[in-house]
Design goal:
Blueprint: E1 9-12, E2 15-21, H1 33-36, E3 45-46, E4 50-52, H2 62-74, E5 78-85, E6 88-96, H3 97-101, E7 115-121, E8 126-135, H4 153-160, H5 165-176, E9 179-184, E10 189-191, H6 198-207, E11 214-223, H7 224-228, H8 232-253, H9 269-277
Antiparallel strand pairs: 1-2, 2-5, 3-4, 4-6, 5-6, 6-7, 7-8, 8-11, 9-10, 9-11
């Protein structure tokens, strides 16, 4: 089963997967308990079922913990979205609202906007955290009428891949242990430091099928054994460290860049060094 949403309703065997915005705004800033009491637990990342969000108190939910932390860090509203249903969800994201609202054609949905995300690759039993840019099909279909618009961040990403700043950031992050996936969701190519090829990545992004959903992900891979050996509060800190590292890349991919960047090493360096050494 793909970890990427292909439509509003996705069939996976006998189960339906539903994608949509989370509407518990009343809980978005629910007291300092949200991330001060260390209530998130590593076992909520379930490598058999997904990311547990249901049947938890608000201060235990990764959705609200990270929304609170991101809003506090960047000073802009974050829109939380997800793919999944019930108690366990498969993919979570946080969309910076100023970039989304600036779009003249696509402000009504989250698909066209760069986002922070987390997911569990259940096939390889690896937890991912990082940033994502999506591309819808170029032509409408009966099953899925939405198409990529001119104001989608995908076009900003393609232009940035041909300049100097974005490839420089990508090369640095790959050397630190990050990975990149790009292309149609059904046939993505993954790059590590040892396999990185900027020209091939650019071609893949430009040429995958016009009929397919696809995208670009820059993420930190955390194997199951490392997740299980890490406390909940440490996992939250690790995710936030990853998000800080990918922030410059996100700004370079946005229609309207809106995220304040932390100074290199001030907040994230030592923690990512520890993760790399694991």
């Amino acid at each position: 089963m793909s970890l990427w949403p292909h439509s509003n309703t996705i069939q996976s065997g006998a189960h339906e997967e539903i994608m949509g915005s989370i509407r518990d705004e009343d809980h978005a800033f629910a007291s300092q308990l949200v991330d001060r009491q260390g209530t998130f637990r590593s076992e909520y990342l379930d490598f058999e079922r997904g990311i547990r969000v249901g049947r938890l108190e608000v201060e235990e939910r990764l959705t609200q913990i990270l929304k609170h932390r991101l809003t506090e860090r960047y000073g802009v509203r974050m829109i939380c979205d997800r793919w999944g249903r019930g108690v366990y969800w498969q993919w979570l994201c946080w969309v910076p609202e100023p970039n989304k609202k600036a779009k003249p054609l696509s402000a009504g949905h989250n698909f066209g906007s760069t986002k922070f995300y987390v997911t569990i690759d259940r096939e390889h039993r690896v937890f991912h955290s990082g940033m994502q840019v999506e591309r819808a099909p170029k032509h409408p279909a009966e099953k899925w009428p939405l198409t990529v618009e001119h104001d989608w961040d995908w076009h900003v990403l393609l232009k940035a891949l041909s300049k100097d700043a974005l490839p420089r950031h990508l090369s640095r992050l790959l050397s630190e242990g990050f990975r990149i996936r790009v292309g149609a969701f059904a046939s993505r190519t993954e790059y590590t430091q040892n396999t990185w090829d900027l020209n091939a990545c650019r071609r893949k992004a430009q040429r995958f099928s016009a009929k397919a959903w696809g995208g670009f992900q820059l993420f930190w891979p955390m194997p199951e054994r490392e997740v299980q050996a890490t406390s909940g509060p440490e996992l939250v800190n690790a995710i936030m460290a990853v998000f800080a590292e990918v922030t410059p890349v996100m700004n370079l991919c946005m229609y309207a860049p809106c995220l304040q960047e932390t100074r290199s090493g001030l907040e994230t360096g030592s923690f990512l060094d520890e993760l790399s050494a694991t």
